[in-house]
Amino acid sequence: MQGRYSGRSVAPEGATIPRERALAPHAAPRFFCARARSQTAAHLLNPTPYAVQIPRPALPPHRVLMGPGPSDVDPAVLAALSRPTLGHLDPAFVDLMEEVRAMLRAVYRTDNDVSVPISGTGSAGMETCIVNLVEPGDRVLVGVHGVFGGRMADVARRAGADVTEVHGEWGRALDPAALRAGAEHDRYDLVGVVHAETSTGVLQSIPPIREVADGLGALLLVDCVTSLTGHAVEVDRWGIDAAYSGTQKCLSCPPGLSPVTFGPRAVERLGKRDRSVQSWYLDLSLIGGYWSPEAGGAPRSYHHTAPINMLYALHEALRLALEEGLPARFERHARNAELLRAGLVDLGLELPVPEGERLNPLTVVTIPDGGDDARVRTELLERFGLEIGGGLGPMKGKVWRIGLMGAGSTERNVARCLAALRDVR
Ligand code: PLP
């Protein structure tokens, strides 16, 4: 039998591979799985039914990622990913963890001790905040003016909360007065909003939402997945009690971690829970034993195996963001977004989000009458290696979403995208 290391792609002994595939092991990888036969008599005769044609090493094509995320990863971040994996309690790794925490505090602009990267994408951060802050029966008020506000409400409901959704117009910022008016009770435990609604390209001002939360006696939870290091996020100054983000947007890191920050009131709420957090994996009181043991006074201990190399990547991404300087980084995002918007308007395209409410890391543009969404995006990808996003939910088929995030927010990408769009639209 020729095995995995023989240099040829062959199936384990006894497996059947169509002749043309067996003779062409370097053809485009296709999976061949004999599992369906496992209930048959043939299975009894075949001791290795889970045969697979071993594919070539994966070599993804080079793309320019100008969609809603993931964004292009900075080469220095990719290089960081490939450094030697350490044990999750190795003192050298612990030093890196401490640096990551310190840099997260810096980008979130907070003194919060509990500023840690959750293992998982942005949705894991959303879920972490909600399952730690919400107990069954708690009242949660969510402003919904896009997909991600809706998701926050859904997660809160699954955590057993009594959720009030206040719906705003998609493509517009939430009106704080309407949010307040939509509340069905005088008191809430939590108010949740999205700072940068990636589905609509809208930026939400947070201080007026803080006032609404104050009026309801509620903690404030903010989704910063698409804003962190692309727009100012001022956790302490704006009085945000809990926030989460993702690595694959303006941090220009691969997807896989979700930086979360919990302020003193959120930590207090966690400490006063009647029941333990329903998710063991996302329980911050347990995760804290690994990430911030000083709070509990116990030695740092294992909770789950940290995604070591992703943390190298985040470390590098945060370093690059802080080296550039946050104000300069915000200004770069603003400048390139403005260039893109002007170019799109020159092409005769319309920007549905009013000025003053537009995101800089993500521009939403209306697909013109007769425009063929799928054809345009396919041609951009196939002819120019350029990815832009389509609409989500009710905006599907109506808009394109063009990202200029982190390392991808460059004048060159603006020019590249406008030239390609001019050609294919
Ligand atoms: N919140 C917002 C605003 C997002 O844009 C996204 C993803 O695009 C998420 C939450 C969910 O993040 P993820 O897809 O990384 O789980």
What is the name of the CATH superfamily of the largest domain? Type I PLP-dependent aspartate aminotransferase-like (Major domain)
How many whole angstroms does the radius of gyration measure? 24 Å
Low-confidence stretches: 1-38
- Which series of helices and strands comes N to C? HHEHHEHEHEHEEEHEHEEHHHHEHEEEH
Please describe the biggest sheet, giving its number of strands, its sense, and whether it closes into a barrel: 7 strands, mixed
The assigned structural class equals: alpha/beta
Q: List each distinct ligand once.
A: pyridoxal-5'-phosphate
CATH topology descriptor of the largest domain? Aspartate Aminotransferase, domain 2
Strand order of the largest sheet: 2-10-9-8-5-3-4
User: Helical residue percent?
Assistant: 25-40%
Tell me the strand percentage band: 5-15%
Mean pLDDT: 91
Helix tally equals 15
CATH architectural type of the largest domain: 3-Layer(aba) Sandwich
Gap between N and C termini, in Å? 53 Å
Explain what you see.
The chain has 3 domains: 4-53, no CATH class; 64-69 and 326-424, Aspartate Aminotransferase, domain 1 (Alpha-Beta Complex), CATH 3.90.1150.10; 75-323, Aspartate Aminotransferase, domain 2 (3-Layer(aba) Sandwich). It has helices at 19-23, 41-45, 75-81, 91-108, 122-133, 147-158, 176-182, 207-215, 235-238, 264-271, 284-291, 308-324, 326-346, 373-384, 411-424, and strands at 64-65, 114-119, 139-144, 162-167, 190-194, 196-197, 202-203, 219-223, 242-244, 257-262, 362-366, 386-387, 389-390, 399-403. Helix 3 (75-81) runs antiparallel to helix 12, helix 4 packs across helix 12 (308-324) and helix 13 (326-346) packs parallel to helix 15. The protein is of the alpha/beta class and 425 residues long. The chain has 15 helices and 14 strands. The strands form 4 sheets. A 7-stranded mixed beta sheet has the order 2-10-9-8-5-3-4, sandwiched between helices. A 3-stranded antiparallel beta sheet has the order 11-14-13, covered by helices on one side. The structure holds pyridoxal-5'-phosphate. Pyridoxal-5'-phosphate binds next to helix 5.
